[in-house]
Design brief:
Layout (H helix, E strand, L loop, with lengths): L1 H19 L2 H5 L10 H5 L19 E8 L7 E4 L3 E8 L7 E4 L4 E8 L6 E4 L4 E8 L6 E4 L4 E7 L1
Parallel strand pairs: 1-3, 2-4, 3-5, 4-6, 5-7, 6-8, 7-9
Organism: Stutzerimonas chloritidismutans (Pseudomonas chloritidismutans)
Family: Belongs to the CsgA/CsgB family.
Keywords: Signal
């Protein structure tokens, strides 16, 4: 398990920092700190955040990022447009993830470290990229893409 944690830390942290330094996220003018209060961290209720994404064309960039650590995790991103980026970064226990994008020149990435992994990326359009990286014991991945000029990469580690 130590090997899986080491691989996940090496994958999760650089990806998180790269996503946070993304021009799309910086241009969004979000608050610099999204820290939770102690009572929010301890809360077991499900949290849902909806961020509207408008289609800006290939020259523009939209980014959706979900970064989670904890116990029974789950994530879901659905976007429509072009030149979209979606990242789901999870570390924890039960894990599940999903990315579904409609449009062209989109990128989807799921990185999971934990026990009961599941992942799913489904993209419709041309020139989309999908990547899934999983460490843990319960691996299960699915990438479905419809269109042309598509690429997909799935890596699973112990």
């Amino acid at each position: 398990m130590f090997n899986a944690q080491r691989i996940a830390c090496k994958a999760l942290l650089p990806l998180l920092f790269a996503a946070l330094a993304s021009p799309a996220l910086l241009a969004a003018s979000l608050p610099t700190s999204l820290d939770l209060a102690p009572d929010e961290i301890a809360s077991s209720r499900s949290q849902a955040i909806a961020l509207p994404q408008t289609e800006t064309g290939i020259s523009g960039r939209n980014l959706a990022l979900v970064a989670q650590t904890g116990d029974s995790l789950s994530a879901d991103i659905t976007q429509t447009g072009n030149a979209l980026e979606a990242f789901i970064l999870q570390s924890g226990y039960a894990l599940e993830a999903s990315i579904e994008q409609y449009g062209s020149h989109n990128q989807g990435l799921i990185v999971q470290s934990g026990s009961y992994n599941k992942a799913r990326i489904e993209q419709y359009g041309a020139y989309n990229d999908a990547q899934i990286e999983q460490t843990g014991t319960g691996h299960c991945s699915s990438v479905t893409q419809h269109g042309q000029g598509l690429s997909a990469l799935v890596r699973q580690y112990r």
